[in-house]
UniProtKB/TrEMBL annotation:
Residues 1-22 form the signal peptide. Residues 156-311 form the Penicillin-binding protein dimerisation domain. It is found in: Membrane. It holds the Pfam family Transpeptidase. Belongs to the transpeptidase family. This is Penicillin-binding protein. Gene3D superfamilies: DD-peptidase/beta-lactamase superfamily, Penicillin-binding protein 2a (Domain 2). InterPro entries: Beta-lactam/transpept (IPR050515), Beta-lactam/transpept-like (IPR012338), MecA_N (IPR007887), NTF2-like_dom_sf (IPR032710), PBP_dimer (IPR005311), PBP_dimer_sf (IPR036138), PCN-bd_Tpept (IPR001460). It comes from Tessaracoccus defluvii. The keyword Lyase does not apply. GO terms for molecular function: penicillin binding; peptidoglycan L,D-transpeptidase activity. Its main location: membrane. It comes from the Bacteria.
Length: 632
């Protein structure tokens, strides 16, 4: 008996081994075939319709064995917790079962995580009354689903990488903030308006608006009045009935406005960003929206934790849900984002912002490390908002651009002591150029190039023989006039003069030539360092100059003229603070209602700086005081 039973087992094992599928090419079972039985049509069209319906998320119109409305309801239940994430469905194979069945293998592909999620499921069809009908079951959507379960998507953002200052300390990082508001469930209705008014007054927010907001929310809502740093929460907030403080996580800098145009912001992606991400982003994600946070978002954001679990369904009204142990079917672990290192000096940036805080219009300060070319500060006045005017604004640079024209003249054989002509007016074509009001009459006529530079003679530079190509080349050697990808939002100016009038105007920083405050800081840094300098902000993202380098002899000549400007020219107010400088004004606006940009660029052994005031008087009286305040 035992030997016979053992022999039967061996025989059964051999039979099973003989029909087992191979490792690479599964074979159909004896009851399945890849072609339909002779008396049945192929199920291809029915499977194609099923795939199209699944991709359209509407299976209610398909021929089914049972009620298609129930199938549609189950489809919606299964995906209700998937945050609008659905698979793309494709058919891969069809096999047939005797006497009237077909099995379609469906490949489900989700845009989830870094690499996506793909699996196969099986759809069963039956040929009934001359029609292939879907024999619906939840396993069609995922093999491990049952009539008691559904899918649930959850995600948790990785800890965002920091943006560090030039000492390696975090300027912007993920920190705790606190939402302060009224918990309506903790205060009686009659006292809610008073509590809202008291909290709004304490936090210095609009009282009427907050009272209206509290009244409009549900009876147990937590209504936020303000989001604060811990040190900014008044201790007396606990004395207000219904007040509540809730901790949240946010990506913040030293202050809300600190270097905001450079650093940028984070938040939920826009619909446009989601559409362009090919499924990589969802409305729940946190991403960089502007500035460096946007440019380096992938690096800073890291990889979020993404899970899809099979969980129990909610019970119908009046019923209790059966116990269900949830389990994961897809999981991507989080990885912390990688930070970036900046050249920015925390204290100098804060000081520059403080200096500009009282400016009523737009003004900027850009400071560059003369030795390294790193941007130490790039600040702008409050009216600039978060647009990066300091690094990306486009303005006529006025007479500060004479440093570029002077270099082109030096390359043409002129020296700082050479005699140049400085007439009171100069006619070029139909346009007459003159000097600024208050230009010293003693510096008219035949003067040295240094005198023309330090007193800022327009006619001497506009009337020079420098060509457009020579002007562009000189600009390149001083770090401007060429579009570089410097690793942040930056503009290094455009030097492309057109006709003779435009060329003459460009030589004195008017006409079609435009520069950013960053670009003019690059000119000052190039002169001060004695080499072509393209300022950088993000470590290891420095742009390389494509222009002819500034030579030592050229730098020495330019330094002598900029030093003379501080010693006895229009930059005298910077004496003792800066070694060399150049003032500038530029007219802009409609004819008859023109206003004046005021500029000052300067350098010493440590810093190169540009100061710009959009609507000012002159470089010496409007822009220079900003530099004095910054370094005093």
């Amino acid at each position: 008996m035992r030997r016979g039973f053992a022999a039967a087992l061996v025989t059964l094992a051999l039979l099973l081994a003989g029909c087992a599928p191979g490792p690479e090419q599964p074979a159909p079972s004896p009851t399945e075939a890849t072609d339909p039985p002779a008396d049945l049509p192929a199920a291809d069209d029915a499977v194609t319709a099923l795939v199209a319906a699944l991709n359209a998320r509407d299976v209610s119109k398909l021929p089914m064995v049972r009620n298609p409305a129930d199938a549609q309801a189950e489809f919606e239940t299964v995906f209700a917790g998937m945050d609008e994430i659905y698979p793309t469905v494709e058919r891969t194979a069809i096999t047939y079962e005797d006497p009237d069945g077909a099995l379609a293998t469906l490949t489900m592909t989700y845009q989830l995580g870094k690499d996506g999620w793909t699996y196969d499921s099986t759809a069963r069809l039956r040929h009934i009354e001359g029609v292939w009908r879907v024999d619906w079951s939840p396993q069609l959507l995922h093999p491990q689903l049952t009539s008691d379960s559904r899918l649930r998507h959850t995600t948790e953002e990785a800890r965002r990488g920091p943006i560090n200052d030039n000492t390696g300390l975090a300027l912007v990082e993920q920190r705790s903030l606190y939402e302060v508001g009224i918990d309506k469930g903790a205060v009686i209705e009659a006292d809610q308006a008073t509590a809202a008014a008291d909290l709004a007054t304490l936090l210095q927010v609009d009282v009427a608006a907050f009272q209206k907001k509290v009244a409009a929310n549900g009876p147990k809502a937590f209504v936020i009045a303000a989001t604060l740093r811990q040190e900014d929460i008044p201790s007396t907030v606990v004395d207000i009935p219904g007040s509540h403080v809730r901790e949240i996580t946010a990506v913040v800098g030293p202050t809300d406005s600190f270097a905001a145009p450079l650093l940028g912001t984070v938040g939920h992606p826009t619909q446009e960003m989601i559409d362009k991400s090919d499924g990589a982003l969802t409305p729940a994600d946190i991403v960089g929206l502007s500035g460096l946070q946007s440019r380096y978002d992938e690096q800073l954001r890291g990889v979020p934790s993404v899970r899809v679990d099979v969980v129990g369904r909610k019970a119908a009204a009046g019923a209790s849900a059966a116990p269900f142990d949830a389990f994961p079917v897809f999981q991507q672990d989080a990885s912390i984002g990688t930070g970036i290192q900046l050249s920015l000096d925390r204290d100098l940036q804060a000081k520059a912002e403080e200096v500009l805080s009282t400016q009523t219009g737009l003004a900027t300060l850009v400071v560059v490390d003369v030795a390294t070319g790193g941007i130490l500060a790039a600040a702008q006045s409050p009216s600039g908002g978060t647009f990066p005017y300091a690094t990306y604004g486009k303005y006529a640079p006025g007479s500060t651009f004479k440093a570029v024209t002077a270099l082109a003249m030096l390359r043409g054989g002129v020296t700082p002591t050479s005699t140049v002509k400085c007439p009171s007016s100069l006619k070029v074509g139909s346009h007459t150029f003159g000097n600024y009001s208050g230009y010293p009459s003693s510096a008219l006529g035949s003067v040295t190039l240094t005198d023309a530079f330090k007193y800022s003679c327009n006619t001497a530079f506009a009337g020079s023989s420098v060509s457009g190509d020579q002007l562009h080349a000189a600009a390149g050697s001083l770090g401007v006039g060429t579009d570089y990808d410097a690793g942040f939002t930056s503009y290094f100016g455009t030097v492309q003069p057109g006709n003779a009038i435009d060329l003459a105007a460009s030589k004195i920083g008017q006409g079609q030539v435009t520069m950013s405050p960053l670009g003019m800081a690059a000119v000052a840094a190039s002169v001060g360092s004695g080499k072509t300098t393209i300022p950088w902000l993000v470590k290891d993202k420095q742009a390389a100059s494509t222009a002819a380098p500034l030579t030592a002899a050229e730098a020495t000549a330019l330094q002598s003229m900029m030093t003379a400007t501080v010693d006895s020219g229009t930059g005298k107010s910077l004496k003792g603070i800066m070694t060399g400088a150049k003032t500038g004004t530029a007219e802009w606006g409609k004819a008859g209602a023109q206003q004046t940009h005021a500029w000052m660029i300067a350098y010493n052994s440590t810093y190169a700086v540009s100061a710009f005031v959009e609507v000012g008087d002159s470089g010496g009286t409007t822009a220079a005081p900003l530099i004095v305040s910054l370094f005093s």
